[in-house]
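input
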Amino acid sequence: MNVGLLFFLLNGITGAFGLVMSPILLLNILLSTVLAVYYFKLHTIVYLRLTDNSLSIHKGLVYPRKKVDLSEIEQGRLSASKLILLLKNEKEIDINLSLLTIKDYEKLHAMMLHFFPIQRH
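output
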């Protein structure tokens, strides 16, 4: 789609239509490029970082990482595809287990059991 828009942009969209559409088409091309670079680099982003007393979860392109102290977690609930962490302030944090390797999941599970109970649902 962007190739067609670029073709019309370079061939000279004239008049009022061209003045209005040119910035919109350029913005579309710019945003598409940024998203493409993000998706190409997505496999290099660490989804879950675990330290001795906290964990940090990648939330996406525009959202900052969610950092949680392990002492703030009251309990965990394990379902088929995600781990739901229930915090002491009654908020919930979802961890998508399909984004973790088996080794990372086992390390996470073992560390979590030291801090709070994990229920299976």
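quick obs: Residues 76 and 118 are 4 Å apart (CA to CA).
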